[in-house]
Amino acid sequence: MKLLQRILAGAAIGLATGAAGGAFVSAVYVVRSAYIERGLMLAAAYEWNRFLFRTTLSVVLMGIFYALVFHIARKIARRKETAQAVTASLVLIQIFSTLFYLRSHGAIIEHFLSRFRTGDKAEAALQARIFADSQGGWSIVTILLVIAGGLILYLLLTTPATLLLRPLFRRLNRSAITRWRWRKIVVAAALCSIAVLGLSLAMQAVAARGSDPSAPRVVLISLDTVGAEYLGAYGDPQARTPVLDQFMKRAALFSDVSVAEPFTLTSHITMLTSLYPGAQGVNLTQGLRLDRITLAEVFRNQGYETGGFSTSSWLDPIFGFDQGFAYYSNTVRATADEVNRDAFRWIQLFRRRPFFVFLHYYDAHSDPGRWPYDAPDPYPALFEVGLPGTFDGCRGADCATWLLLKVDQGLVSLTPAETASIRGFYYASIAWLDAQIGQLFRKLAELDLWEEAIIVITADHGEQMLQHGGTMHDHLYQEVLRVPLAIRVPAVAAGRIISAPVQSIDLAPTLLSAAGLPVPADFQGRDLAPSLTGGAIEVAPRFSVSSSLPGTMLIPGYVIEHSGRKLIVRAGNDGPEQLYDTINDPGEMNPLNSDAAPETAQLRETLQTWIEDNLLDANESSSDGAPLLDQAAQEELRALGYLN
Hints:
The protein is an alpha/beta fold. It has two domains: 207 residues, no CATH class; 319 residues, Alkaline Phosphatase, subunit A. The chain has 22 helices and 18 strands. The strands form five sheets. Strands 5-4-6-1-9-12-2-13 form an eight-stranded mixed beta sheet, sandwiched between helices. A four-stranded antiparallel beta sheet has the order 15-16-17-18, covered by helices on one side. Helix 1 packs parallel to helix 10, helix 2 crosses helix 10 and helix 4 packs antiparallel against helix 7. The radius of gyration is 32 Å and the shape is globular. About 14% of the residues have low confidence.
């Protein structure tokens, strides 16, 4: 009977200790919420029951263990003081081992604190929460150390050292704790546990407030510089993109999508705000206007967790890209596997809550390094490039992006074999990117998020491969403006191909509508969600602009496309206007006589009206002052051919 009483008392004390510790950690989360991003604290609270159960169970088991140790020691030693000494020694060993464990992670903790002190509170909190989530409970090694230490100390019980503990236990025997009957201890522990459980449920209610737990997870993927015509799903037999091709077969595939501007900065802002460049207020010295609402803001206001992961100086928070994101990380020129590594941490943490995550991959962009487009082995070899004795992307001292710039400026001519090699490097970078998207999809499936997630794949612009004599993306031809767009929505029939002409500005309202959320009235794009289930899309003119930002190397110009006609108008006197029949000449290789075409006047008038309504608004934003980006970022962008 005494053994049962001791075990129950040990379990009760453990339960009370675990509950009290849980209450303390819960209070810490509440206090932290006043200083750290709300979303991170709520994610911690949302997993609170699992943490509470794990921690309390561990302490209960240790309480039972110590009760058994005391009982056995009491039977063997025949003296209460000796049994108390054994138990106290084990408790001390546990305390010291825990302190040692914390000390061994001092570098990690100091890293968290340093990130917090330098102002990166969201990153510090995210790392601390992920670290804490991976810990918890008593490790097997710690328990074995406790048992081993206890056995060693038991052998030393006959030494005078144990006598030092006798005064301590005599005092404890006279305390109120030892006078409590074990039944009272159990009742007190149960009441304490109920109180903490109530706090836990209250925190869960706060965490879930304003959001629907059944709401879909939303994943927006931007493949920087990946033109639609270079993917297998869009008909390119040379492409090796099995993951993207298979995904697009299971999604609604838009076959004719153009961007508002073939420029990484403004094109992505259009993607996230559904605003034409002039309405954004963005230039080299000024970020997104504060009165503009972003896609991430809408999701966050609806109770979603929001995270963004980008890899270019053009997507720096200084331009406003972090607006609406509870967590936003921009690691310049990070590779796709590095983006995945960081994004997987975030997705793992928020997997139980509705979230919107934006993933930007830069791997297919031209590279200032060894090759025009750089991809790790073995992908270049798949296209017979990057091999010994083959074209290495250099012409004298001009290599990689610098060679592409010289070609684009007409200073260097490439042979057909060299042109094919540059295309091979580009295809290799897309093939590598395709494999990393596959890793992302597998992670979503591993976390049971794949089937119920809304997933969107698109790009900010395409790339020229000398179709019109140029390279990179500083023109307004279809190989630059046309991008992929595939939207997969749960419970919507797969394999639908939508051929109506649409624009990237339509993405944000479509995504919100597909998620069942309201679309802001300020969005300039159209809601294409009805087309996902077979609805018709009203044909409307499409507009694009090039180089709305002074100081860049893009060629200024405007585009209007409507009813199978595309008119390109160069700004000022920079070349003649060009008119194309996009139905019979989709590659835009044979310009029509614009002056003789009867529809030209109407296209010009519509384009001029659009410019006045949407681009002159940019005059409200001053381009005077110092550039927002620091000198290192400017040099990086200059090496990529963006800045003069």
